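Reviewers asked in the last cycle whether our approach scales beyond single polypeptides. To address this, we selected a multi-component target totalling 691 residues and predicted its structure end to end. The input consisted of the following lines:
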Amino acid sequence: MTTSSSPSVLVLGAASDVGRAIAAEYARTGASLILAARRAARLDPDAADLRLRYAVEVRTAEFDVLDTAGHQAFLDGLGVLPDIAVCVVGLLGDQARAQNDFAAAELIIRSNYVGPASILGEIANRMEVRGGGVIIGVSSVAGDRGRASNYVYGSAKAGLTAFLSGLRNRLAAPGVRVITVKPGFIRTPMTAGMALPPLLTALPEEVGRAVVAAARRGRDVIYVRPVWCGIMAVICHLPERLFKRMRI
Amino acid sequence: MAGQVLSGWGRYPRVACRLVEPRDAEEATQAILAADSLIARGNGRAYGDAALNPQGTLSMLRQGRLLAFDPSTGLLTCEAGVLLADIVALFVPRGWFPPVTPGTKFVTIGGMIAADVHGKNHHAAGSFGNHVASLDLALGDGRVLRCSPSENAELFAATCGGMGLTGVILRASFRLVPIETSRIRQETLPARNLDEVMELFEASQAWTYSVAWIDCLAKGRSVGRSLLYRGEHARPDELPVESRGTPLASPGKATKRLPVDFPAVALNRWSVRAFNELYFHAGRPGIKIIDYDSFFYPLDAILEWNRIYGSSGFTQYQCVLPKAASPQGMRLLLERIAKAAAGSFLAVLKLLGRQDGMLSFPMEGYTLALDFRATAATFSLLLELDAIVRDHGGRLYLAKDARGGAQMLRSGYPRLDRFAAIRGAAGGNRVKFSSLQSQRLGL
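The resulting structure, written as structure tokens, was:
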């Protein structure tokens, strides 16, 4: 890991609102950035914006989370392994469709679990060899307990949460830090049609600040809005006999 | 994509609109193609219904990226959803200032072009459109056209001030102006009446910035009583000694948020009269060095100040009269407003320079702007004011308007037919781009 005061940060899924917000927050701290998304050309305006606002170095890279066979080559192509890797990749999908069409379910699972596990696992191995680094995985409160309304997505996020937990456990000694972020509801166009409770709903910028703060303070698992910690504690401790009859 | 209750800054009217929020130009053009009827929306600072369309309102706020800046010319290129506040915060410390700024910095660049906003320097610098080098306009048929004074020039001219009716502005390039300090040298001059303040405006033509705050409750010989402020970007040697090391420092952040709607009775003729008395006696004549926020954006310091007019909302009335008709016309307007005793805390008076737009508001003459709570009594008073404006050859500002009529528009904007022809000729725009305002005005 380089010891310079401005670390390099890789953002996987940089085209999303949350990815943009995390990139902006890191740029504000002076970090140099690699923005990665499926269509890198789409990131050019984002890169230009970050350079102009924060006078930092920004590169873009083509990255497809589903192309697990290409993940080694993707990392090789970056040239230098970043100090910090953030994975914001995800797909909410449509639960009703996913439970009737396994191809749809599989896409959700591959986008939220298989793909992120592949790329973060490879980054972890390389950081372990180097002897340092920070991995930040954006998972979800939906992974804390499966619910009827989104269990395909939730199960994939549960997988990711467990994967990150295991990585953290494995890499604590070599000095690679692994952070799990559970944002709760986020106000984005994807959720604009939903009636989200304001107290539980974070703006993308809030997620960005929380992520950077969590990395700075050496946290392991964070809920962006602390209120979610209590809510999920209650939800997770409801007896299954009761929980299975509820619609939450 | 959802039905969401939206309003302009005046919180009147409030309407459920199908809101689309594209992340980039590609998604924006897709949304345009998919819509039957649509209007672009920036940061919602137009006061009335200019950026509302129940069938489709396209928010540009996710397209707030800066794209390029050339420090040798000051040319800035950005997406239309960039906030002026961001530009000011980023570029003042680098020695650059917007060429034209309205009285709030919480506007988008796209909105500034669509409303062809003016500032305290209009007499010298013209409106914002005068400083736009080029813009990219998405048309109703999905094409994107580069428009500038030399390329698609008529469409460019119609788009500056065109209230989003010629298409969706995606990107724009405009020139910032160099500054040596972040401070303004402000001179305050009291005027006892309308004649005096107009003389002061004439005498201030060589100043970069000038504006007057006028007491709308003053009557008789005091009609038009006001404080005129004129300003220049301060030179480094004019700063207090302790600031000379950091001439481009940003002002401190001292914003307050209005916590609740004021009850409707809080603003009445007595409270406003008391405030105006205090204000005019507190305004000390003389010169001082102040930060740019205090000079350009005094109301931005109180976030959500629009709640002061209570939950029913308010409307801002802004008109301009040709210069020759201004002494008589402004007197009639002010007398009528004082008689109704319904005006806002303060009104703004400003001498505008020459301007030659189609739907652009400015013309050479005096502009008056003041707020009214949105009530039935207000609307009948405003009809009387309309008649005075019309009789004196004036017009209303569409960025403020929530209630004017088609006749008033037609009498105020003689080049309306030209505007309609250009708009109609461009890619199905006549049908596709409309707002509640354009529908109300028969545009």
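Chain A touches chain B through twelve residues (CB under 8 Å). We regard this as preliminary and will revisit it once experimental data from Aim 1 are available.
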